[in-house]
Amino acid sequence: MDEWETQTQAHTKVDRFKDWVKSDAMAVTAKQIAFQTLGHPLDFARTLVQLGYEPFAPTERTFIFGSPYLALPNTFQYLKYIKSVDGFLGCYRGLGPRICQSIVSSAVFSKVLAQNPFQRDESQTNQTRGGDRLRLSSARSGALVRGSQVANDFIGLMTNTGWEIISVASATIVSQPFYVIAVRSMAQFVGRETKYSTIFDAISTIFREEGILGFFSGLVPRLVGDVIYISLSASLAYLVKSYFCGNKDTLGIEGGVVMLSNVVTSSFTYQFSVVASVMAVNDSSLAVGHYPFTKSYDDWYQCWRYLAATKQLKRGSSIIGRYYTGPTVVLNGARRPTGFYFGPQHPPGLGFRESIFTSIYPPIPKKID
Q1: DSSP β-bridge partners for residue 136
Q2: Whole-model pTM?
Q3: Secondary structure of the chain: what % helix, strand, coil (to 5)?
């Protein structure tokens, strides 16, 4: 009898796994991983820029209308430099933990969101209408706005938004260790460290050097940014849909409204992503977590204030047309950056040879209490 129950339970688990593989959630996760893999080199370059690593000093150029500015290499030139140092595979540093972060985040988000009683009621209502149901997700946090509820039911919108905030916050907290590992894996490019080469090495290093709290470095600015993002995105979608689109409940209009609100809100909350990346490496054993790349911050708000004062909160937000926005001085009639460290420039073909790492870039001494 016990053996029969054990086999039944095992068979049930297999069936559940097969159902999950065939489900829409699995298809969405697979697409997300595919797009993440294709776009990872750009994410890698953006992360290094967010951390304050600029290997090449800006050059002075002139806008169309004659005003001068300090131009930085665009993201594709940045990637060309990374490839020259580490090769093609070097452009995929940190991809493993980034995919793990995405899978864990999506799973937790879907699981918590499924507990929303309003969502279940709405799903049943849509089935009686013939199953026509809109679900639009943002790539950043999973914020969604659905169907005619955007225009006709403010209470329903607030209920959905509240559950989305809870779901995204849960997903962010659970996946934060993989976020920290991913950022630090990419940050190794700057100082040529090797201690975050694998996920297991990274877990061992973080636990040994910083304890459990090290896995949650930079968590608060991510949470704050996600809450503001979802709230603003849902509010903008509701206002535009209600006051500019009237009673038109077509998928095309609602899709455009949600897309527009996501783009506007993403631009507004990008600063939190920069602060989260900086705090993820702050005071770690990585070179980019110390002077001259960054200051030592007691908390994320101190980091925010310093980056805001030096006009660095938007760094990495542009792929093409990047330019230096920090403090400058005028020397011999030309503007020059000041207070910002440019470099180091690694020689081409350096690759992952550890003997070269230790000889050219000595380890940072431990902090003395």
Answers
A1: 145
A2: 0.81
A3: 65, 5, 30
End-to-end CA distance of the chain: 63
- Residues 285 and 283: their CA atoms lie apart, in Å, by 7
Which amino acid is located at 347 in the chain?
Answer: P
**Strand positions, DSSP E, the chain:** 59-62, 68-71, 136-137, 144-145, 328-331, 334-337
- Of 33, 183, 192, give the one whose Cα is nearest residue 105: 33
Q: Which of 46-60, 94-108, 124-138 has the lowest mean pLDDT?
A: 124-138
- Whole-angstrom Cα distance, residue 277 to residue 138? 20
Integer angstrom CA distances of residue 36 from 28, 41, 92, 166, 248: 12, 9, 11, 24, 34
Residue 243 one-letter amino acid: Y
> What is the distance between the alpha carbons of residues 186 and 20, in angstroms, rounded to a whole number?
32
pLDDT exceeds cutoff 90 at 357: no
Structural contact between residues 182 and 94, judged by C-beta atoms closer than 8 angstroms: yes
Burial class (CB in 10 A: 0-12, 13-18, 19+), 31: exposed
Distance (Å, whole) CA 176 – CA 223: 10
- Position 88 confidence tier, pLDDT thresholds 50, 70, 90: very high
290 vs 286: CA distance, rounded Å: 7
